[in-house]
């Protein structure tokens, strides 16, 4: 009778708590993973703060109305002296002094998060990589912790190669190329393209070490990837790390399957006039004729670089959409407003200030290629849409992602950015309009190299769609993971009963 009771208990819905980080790209990734688990019958609670909840509340409400068991648990962000009300996340405009105050708030919240895990009694927790402490609370509760790792398997394999073999220490200058040892493909980089924390130890080096240690102590990792795009590196990474990992992507493609989902992803407002207007503008353009230019939510180009981009776009002769930061007229606003007026009059360009309905734009037939900062979310969304990319990495793991696109997948062309920098810092290095124009010309041209890139991108797009279908690589992995987690729960229940008996 007892064993029957155990079986009934284990057959109940799995109950999970998700904790995303408070920068937009990390937030969207973990929230999409949470929505994916809810799609597959897991009871999901996402813990976050009010301002961050507002970014994805519409998506969760819609999923809930579809009968999925998913909700947000909002925790008030602590009142840190000098921190403005509602400033609870990191973006391109976060000043250094405010950034440290947000971190202070997160440190205060850590104990609250731990207590919520205890009170909610989940069967497992899923947390962002930037919460390494969460593996310890999972250990205390004797439940699995899954770590969400942002970026590609390739990027993390490359990072691991550099940490283990230190090839950058064997070259004579910052601009001399070196080979990354142990990888399945021949990949070369320079010291300048490496994150500062790998070149010389700093606080972030210590944090990344903690993240890696927490990953090795976790039940396993989740990546927004799929076998057909980088299965070789998924296998390589698991061997190198000695850990379990599941590539369950493309997560955005999986959970945002209708236009309402796509329109509201990462945005507080479900529909606005901007979205209608830009889609109408795209409708007037020929297939594959528009270049989409976006550098993510964390970019902050200096004025000279904005000028070079504007001239390159105008000189290219291609129609384009350029997503730019909202700026005051006293900053770069005056120049950009004049530029916007000029290209609008000629019906050649469309500037979007701030948030853009990116998923809808990328999937529009008129869009032919993308200029990107090589953030993994944008890469995956572009590949899902079958688009080749001009690569312009800035910070984080983006220079590794560039090598994946250009050298391994061969669906990207490098613009010529040579130096890694922190997300809110820019030096004097400016990519010239001629170099930007050359990359655009290659992407939007009709030469064999361009056509071959397009064919490869389309093939990866088809593979992405198959990966999430029943029997597809990611679908199969997710089902296997959920079965593993059910078995873990069953074992837990059984052990508790035996302890009581």
TrEMBL record:
- PROSITE patterns, per this entry? UDPGT (PS00375)
| Superkingdom, natural source | Eukaryota
Kindly give the Pfam families that the UniProt entry links to this protein. Answer: UDPGT (PF00201)
| CDD domains per the UniProt record, alphabetical | GT1_Gtf-like
Q: Which InterPro entries match?
A: UDP_glucos_trans (IPR002213), UDP_glycos_trans_CS (IPR035595)
MF terms from GO for this chain are: UDP-glucosyltransferase activity
EC number per UniProt:
2.4.1.-
Q: Which Gene3D superfamilies match?
A: Glycogen Phosphorylase B (3.40.50.2000)
Query: Sorted alphabetically, which keywords does the UniProt record give?
Result: Glycosyltransferase, Transferase
Q: Which family does it belong to?
A: Belongs to the UDP-glycosyltransferase family.
Q: Which PANTHER family match?
A: GLYCOSYLTRANSFERASE, SOLANIDINE UDP-GLUCOSE GLUCOSYLTRANSFERASE 1
Please state what the protein is called.
Glycosyltransferase
| Species the sequence originates in | Trifolium subterraneum (Subterranean clover)
């Amino acid at each position: 009778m007892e064993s029957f009771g155990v079986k009934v208990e284990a057959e109940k819905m799995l109950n999970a708590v998700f904790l995303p980080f408070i920068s937009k790209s990390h937030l969207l990734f973990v929230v999409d993973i949470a929505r994916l688990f809810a799609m597959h019958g897991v009871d999901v609670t996402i813990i976050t703060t009010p301002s961050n909840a507002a970014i994805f509340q519409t998506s969760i409400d819609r999923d809930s109305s579809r009968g999925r068991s998913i909700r947000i648990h909002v925790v008030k962000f602590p009142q840190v002296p000098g921190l403005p009300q509602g400033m609870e996340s990191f973006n391109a405009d976060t000043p250094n002094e405010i950034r440290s105050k947000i971190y202070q708030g997160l440190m205060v919240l850590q104990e609250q998060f731990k207590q919520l895990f205890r009170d909610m009694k989940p069967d497992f927790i899923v947390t962002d990589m930037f919460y390494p402490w969460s593996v310890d609370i999972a250990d205390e509760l004797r439940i699995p912790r899954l770590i969400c790792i942002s970026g590609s398997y390739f990027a993390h394999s490359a990072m691991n190669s550099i940490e283990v073999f230190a090839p950058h220490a064997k070259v004579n200058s910052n601009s001399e190329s070196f080979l990354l040892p142990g990888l399945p493909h021949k990949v070369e980089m320079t010291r300048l393209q490496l994150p500062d924390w790998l070149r010389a130890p700093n606080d972030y080096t210590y944090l990344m070490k903690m993240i890696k240690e927490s990953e090795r102590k976790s039940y396993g990792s989740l990546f927004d990837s799929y076998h057909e795009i980088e299965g070789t590196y998924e296998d390589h990474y698991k061997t190198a790390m000695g850990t379990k990992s599941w590539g369950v992507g493309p997560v955005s493609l999986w959970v945002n399957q209708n236009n309402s989902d796509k329109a509201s992803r990462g945005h507080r407002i479900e529909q606005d006039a901007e979205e209608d207007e830009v889609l109408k503008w795209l409708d007037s353009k020929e297939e594959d004729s528009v270049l989409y230019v976006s550098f993510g939510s964390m970019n902050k180009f200096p004025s000279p670089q904005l000028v070079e981009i504007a001239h390159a776009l105008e000189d290219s002769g291609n129609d384009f959409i350029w997503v730019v930061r909202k700026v005051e007229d006293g900053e770069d606003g005056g120049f950009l407003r004049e530029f916007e007026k000029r290209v609008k009059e000629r019906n050649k360009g469309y500037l979007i200030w701030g948030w853009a309905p990116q998923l809808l734009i990328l999937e529009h037939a008129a869009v032919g290629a993308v200029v990107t900062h090589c953030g993994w979310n944008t890469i995956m969304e572009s590949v899902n849409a079958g688009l080749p990319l001009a690569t312009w990495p800035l910070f984080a793991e983006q220079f590794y992602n560039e090598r994946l696109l250009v050298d391994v997948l061969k669906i990207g062309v490098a613009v010529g950015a040579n130096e890694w920098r922190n997300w809110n810092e820019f030096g004097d290095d400016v990519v010239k309009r001629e170099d930007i124009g050359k990359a655009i010309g290659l992407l939007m041209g009709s030469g064999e190299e361009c056509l071959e890139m397009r064919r490869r991108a389309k093939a990866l797009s088809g593979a992405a769609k198959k990966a999430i279908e029943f029997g597809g690589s990611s679908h199969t992995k997710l089902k296997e993971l959920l079965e593993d987690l059910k078995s873990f729960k069953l074992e837990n229940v059984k052990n508790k009963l035996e302890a009581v008996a």
